[in-house]
């Protein structure tokens, strides 16, 4: 009985190790040569993309500052935020080395304006092929959305360096992401929709390069009450969880794997 349990644990660790090795070592080199690859490396190193929606540009900037001070290194501001480009321009000037991008981008005009104003990445809920071709030279990273295996493969084949699985919670959550990674271990995936702080580690262990956190950082009540200290604290927690998950990956890919076997064996 104990031997069977150890075998299950070992298989689980091997699966995690294998999918993470492929997802962390594809599409980006250790020495990125363009803006898109640098952002991709930032995303994979942090494990977190903070997604901000606000009712004004001023509120968005204040909330973003709180999150960035809390350790967030990849920030997305959605197109649904009034004055989104004003907020983008302000934040890019204040945080020139931070990966700040625009989300819910649905057409090429929006994408071009965002990149012209300094957006380092663009994200969509679906694939917009025109955007992908427009940034083919690597001036910005485009993260298209996909819901099915066919859409994931199509986006990657068309040139996407990383694909957002959306809406992942509705589709089956961690189990669905894990199922997608089995045929596509070489395609970096971002898990998006319905994410909580507690789910970060599980998604990354199952092969996600990162997770998108929205309300988990930019709590609606906190934003409405301008409680930026609350947002700062949530950002600190999110950044820490992302860092821990990425650190766990490094352990799985190194000597930490053997330690996990021993510890699990002792527990069982």
From TrEMBL:
Record carries keyword Transferase: no
UniProt keyword Membrane, yes or no: no
Highest taxon above the source species: Eukaryota
The protein's annotated pathway: Carbohydrate acid metabolism
Pfam families associated with the record: Aldolase (PF01081)
Keywords: Carbohydrate metabolism, Lyase
InterPro entries xref list: Aldlse_KDPG_KHG, Aldolase_TIM
Similarity section: Belongs to the KHG/KDPG aldolase family.
Record's subunit section: Homotrimer.
Protein name (Swiss-Prot/TrEMBL): 2-dehydro-3-deoxyphosphogluconate aldolase / (4S)-4-hydroxy-2-oxoglutarate aldolase
């Amino acid at each position: 009985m104990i031997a069977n349990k150890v075998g299950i644990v070992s298989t689980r660790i091997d699966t995690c190790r294998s999918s993470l090795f492929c997802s962390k070592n594809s599409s980006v080199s250790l020495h990125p040569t363009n803006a898109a690859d640098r952002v991709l490396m930032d995303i994979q190193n942090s494990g977190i993309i903070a997604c901000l929606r606000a009712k004004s540009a001023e509120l968005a900037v204040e909330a973003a500052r709180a999150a960035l001070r809390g350790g967030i290194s990849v920030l997305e501001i959605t197109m649904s935020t009034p004055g989104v480009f004003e907020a983008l321009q302000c934040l890019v000037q204040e945080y020139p080395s931070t990966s700040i991008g625009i989300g819910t981008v649905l057409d090429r005009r929006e994408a071009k304006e965002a990149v012209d104003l300094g957006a380092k990445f663009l994200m969509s809920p679906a694939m917009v092929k025109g955007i992908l071709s427009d940034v083919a030279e690597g001036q910005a990273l485009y993260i298209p959305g996909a819901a099915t295996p066919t859409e994931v493969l199509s986006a990657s084949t068309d040139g996407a360096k990383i694909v957002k699985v959306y809406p992942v919670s509705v589709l089956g959550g961690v189990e669905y992401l894990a199922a997608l990674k089995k045929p596509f271990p070489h395609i970096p995936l971002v898990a998006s929709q319905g994410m909580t702080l507690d789910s970060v580690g599980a998604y990354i262990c199952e092969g996600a390069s990162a997770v998108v956190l929205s309300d988990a950082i930019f709590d609606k009540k906190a934003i409405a009450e301008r409680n930026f200290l609350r947002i700062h604290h949530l950002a600190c927690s999110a950044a820490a969880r992302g860092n821990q998950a990425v650190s766990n990956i490094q352990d799985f890919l190194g000597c930490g794997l053997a330690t996990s076997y021993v510890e699990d064996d002792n527990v069982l």
